[in-house]
């Protein structure tokens, strides 16, 4: 059987799109509320310009931006959309909340959205698929040619722990503190189409791989692979899906800026004829685990020679290194918010501190909902 080509819709500029998954909370029980359809219908009726998507679970609304040239433009759209969603949630007596996972909600009691592919995924993946009470951030960056896609993805994987540690916000699960900064990361990789991408070197290798997945039936239930970083050929982008959902738009803007800068940085290295970084697959896998386990307290592997550094030092240096490019791309203020996150602590650290004080996750849910309302992006 001949291999079907996968056309890549080339982007002439490094444009940007963001997807942010947000949960709906019952303010009395602090549990998740399966009211996404009601919220989406309210927003559609009152603010038809807002693009929302129904997600895997009926307790989740996904905010989806259009195509933007700069991070501030994308964040402005998200801020508008978030205000519209909050208006709808307020009218239904709900609160908005976002994190990598909910610390005590029972997956058995959270209905899946009425979409046939979701029901098929649950039927196939059973116990692990049923547990997907998890939320993330997806950042798309436009790429000019498919030949650049996999070298850039492989380079981005060297910064996987940086992006995850910054956003890790899922320490709680089933009522306990798991000891992980991002339990979401560990859960999601259990699905057969999820996890670390393979280190393809050419677009033809990717086409051959996807051809095999189609023949073997791996992607029959999903239509695609859900790698942590993957090509989105239909949009002409690389889609970075590493981050836990941030509790607020201020911190979201920081990780979007970091992602945008990294992709453009590696793209320009190709322009200059420079060799892009790549780590051995075992180092990439180890870094992913360390970031999921330890978050901002991770010691990460930084070279093929197995050199190591604290991820906080790495992030501080990255901000300095990428600042000139960020200024050019119009997202220097947002990139600099990384320093603020390092000072305040990542989401998992804030949640864990609250749980240690109260020995109860409900006040932690309240505080996380408060962050959605209080930690606003710059200029808002």
Automatic annotation (TrEMBL):
Its EC number is 6.3.2.2. PANTHER family: GLUTAMATE--CYSTEINE LIGASE 2-RELATED. Signal peptide: none annotated. Keywords: ATP-binding, Ligase, Nucleotide-binding. Belongs to the glutamate--cysteine ligase type 2 family. YbdK subfamily. This is Putative glutamate--cysteine ligase 2. HAMAP family: Glu_cys_ligase_2 (MF_01609). The keyword ATP-binding applies. Transmembrane segments: none annotated. ATP-dependent carboxylate-amine ligase which exhibits weak glutamate--cysteine ligase activity.
């Amino acid at each position: 059987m001949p291999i079907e080509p996968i056309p890549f819709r080339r982007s002439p500029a490094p444009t940007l799109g963001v997807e942010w998954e947000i949960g709906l909370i019952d303010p009395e029980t602090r549990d998740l509320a399966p009211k996404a359809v009601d919220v989406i219908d309210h927003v559609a009726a009152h603010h038809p310009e807002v693009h929302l998507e129904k997600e895997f679970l009926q307790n989740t609304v996904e905010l989806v931006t259009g195509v933007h040239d700069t991070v501030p433009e994308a964040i402005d759209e998200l801020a508008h959309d978030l205000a519209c969603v909050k208006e709808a949630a307020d009218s239904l007596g709900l609160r908005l909340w976002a994190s990598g996972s909910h610390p005590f909600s029972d997956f058995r009691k959270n209905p899946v959205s009425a979409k046939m592919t979701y029901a098929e995924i649950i039927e196939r993946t059973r116990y692990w698929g049923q547990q997907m009470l998890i939320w993330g951030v997806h950042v798309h960056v436009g790429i000019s040619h498919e030949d650049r896609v996999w070298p850039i993805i492989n380079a981005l994987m060297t910064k996987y722990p940086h992006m995850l540690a910054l956003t890790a916000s899922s320490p709680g699960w089933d009522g306990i503190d798991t000891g992980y900064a991002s339990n979401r990361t560990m859960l999601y990789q259990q699905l057969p189409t999820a996890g670390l991408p393979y280190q393809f070197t050419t677009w033809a290798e990717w086409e051959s791989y996807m051809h095999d997945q189609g023949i073997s039936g791996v992607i029959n239930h999903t239509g695609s692979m859900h790698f942590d970083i993957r090509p989105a050929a239909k949009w002409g982008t690389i889609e970075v899906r590493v981050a836990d959902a941030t509790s607020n738009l201020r911190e979201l803007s920081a990780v979007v800026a970091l992602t945008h800068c990294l992709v453009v940085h590696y793209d320009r290295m190709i322009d200059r004829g420079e060799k892009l970084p790549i780590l051995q697959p075992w180092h990439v896998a180890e870094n992913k685990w360390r970031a999921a386990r330890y978050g901002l307290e991770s010691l990460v592997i930084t070279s093929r020679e197995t050199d190591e550094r604290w991820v906080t030092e790495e992030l501080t240096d990255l901000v300095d290194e990428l600042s000139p490019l960020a200024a050019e791309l119009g997202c220097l203020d947002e990139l600099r918010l990384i320093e603020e996150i390092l000072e305040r602590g990542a989401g998992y650290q804030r949640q864990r501190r609250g749980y240690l004080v109260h020995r109860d996750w409900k006040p932690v849910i309240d505080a996380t909902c408060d962050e959605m309302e209080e930690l606003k992006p710059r200029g808002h």
